[in-house]
Structures are given as structure tokens and as C-alpha cells.
Amino acid sequence: MSDFTGAEVPDTDFADDDGSANAELRSALEGFESSASAADAQLVLNLLKGERLLVPVVANVDSMQDGVDKDSHMTSVEYVNQDGRRALLAFTGVDSLNDWDPEARPIPRAAHVVAQSVLEQDLDALILDLHGPHTCVIEGPMLVRLAISANHREYLDAALESACDAIEELEGVLAADWETSAEEIVILLEVETASPTLGHDIAHILQDPNVAVVLDRPLQVEIKQV
């Protein structure tokens, strides 16, 4: 699910962007920074879907002649923590980027494309607004969910179909299907004879990382004995 080869192209068109931060996103980042709750994380993800981020690039000198920069190239910025974990930096606005480095050049990218790039480069995290006003580290399942956000419904349907196929293989299960609403996902089971381990076996299937990472709302299992 993390194969995003070529994620850095094509460039996203933000020709009319003036570099201002989304005030609602900034507020959500403040809440997530203070609470790190699942609800605040989901709010951040919801607001980042389709949002523009600014990826800084800086000049790296390739060669010098007589103390003068002869050859250089621009590169994105990788942040390395004390424990060796590596992250890509991005910013919600030019103000927060300038607070970090006024010499950096901002390159606008859609947030999900930036997250895809993090995964493709085998980095550990995406860090938003490193010097504030509200720093946010996006990593693990949250990072993957941001990367797939543009096609989330497809990934969700595929994961639920795979889970239901696996559940149908369990002893006594006749059929498994699912339905979704804005509030929850419900897996509907028809069971002839429930085995003593049915609940445990279903939970094991639903805890598969490929299923868990795409779940963006509560999941319920309803069993009908026939």
C-alpha cells in the first residue's frame, strides 16, 4: 500500500496561492499538538486532504572556485532526529517557513503527494511547521492514511472486501458483507453455527494492518444466525 513510485511528479498547480496558511488547519494542528487524540488526528487528516503544503528547497553547493559558488543545485530538506529517525519538512504557510529559514524556497505540493514522497524515500515521518506556531509530526498509520487520502474510498473498499472474504472462510460463516455510513462501518455476517473462537478469529482478521490503516470511523460487526 506504500508503493507511490513517481509520487513527486507531476507538479500540483497552485498558481493563485499567496502562501497564506489555512486558519482552520492551524487551529486543528494546535489541538493535535496539545492532545494527540484520535479525534484531533482525524480532524487534521480531514483538513489536509486536498490541502496545499509548502516543501522547502535549499541550495547545495557542488563545487567552489576562488571561494565563489561555481555549481549548485536545489534539494528538499531532510530532518534527522537524535535517534536517527529521518523526516521530510513541510510548512502550512510562508510565515512558518520563513520562521524556520527565510532563505528557503517554497515549493507548493498537495499534502497527500508530500506524504507519498515521504513513504517513497523511506523516511520515518512528515514534520509540519518545525518552528511553529504548532508543530505536527505525521507518522505511522496517520502518514499512510494521508498518502492514500486522494483514493481512500478505493483502498477502504478493497480492504473490507479482503476482510469479508477471509471471514467467509471461517467455520460456520455463510456470508459476509459490509455497508458504510458517514458515522460507521458495519460488517454484516450470516452464521449457521457460531464456533467458540469466532469472535477472536474475526478480531484477528480486522486487526490486519492493511485493514486497520484505512479505517476512518468506528467499525461494528453484526451477526445474524440462520
Please describe what this structure looks like:
- Residues about 1-10 and about 70-75 have low confidence and may be disordered.
- The chain contains eight helices and ten strands.
- The strands form three sheets. A four-stranded mixed beta sheet has the order 3-4-6-7. Strands 2-1-5 form a three-stranded antiparallel beta sheet. The chain has a three-stranded mixed beta sheet with strand order 8-9-10, covered by helices on one side.
- By secondary structure, it is an alpha+beta fold.
Topology:
Layout: H1 23-35, H2 38-48, E1 52-65, E2 68-76, E3 78-80, E4 86-90, H3 94-100, E5 105-110, H4 111-120, E6 125-128, E7 136-139, H5 140-147, H6 152-168, E8 173-180, E9 185-191, H7 198-206, H8 209-212, E10 219-225
Parallel strand pairs: 4-6, 9-10
Antiparallel strand pairs: 1-2, 1-5, 3-4, 6-7, 8-9
Helix pairs in contact: 1-2, 4-5
How would you write the strand order of the largest sheet? Answer: 3-4-6-7
Helix content: 25-40%
Number of strands: 10
Number of domains: 2
Mean pLDDT: 88
Distance between the termini: 36 Å
Assembly of the depicted chains: single chain
Shape: elongated
> Which residue ranges are poorly predicted, with pLDDT under 50 across at least 5 consecutive positions?
1-10, 68-73
Structural class: alpha+beta
Strand content: 25-35%
Series of secondary-structure elements, N-terminal to C-terminal? HHEEEEHEHEEHHEEHHE
Radius of gyration: 22 Å
- Count of helical segments? 8
Largest sheet: 4 strands, mixed
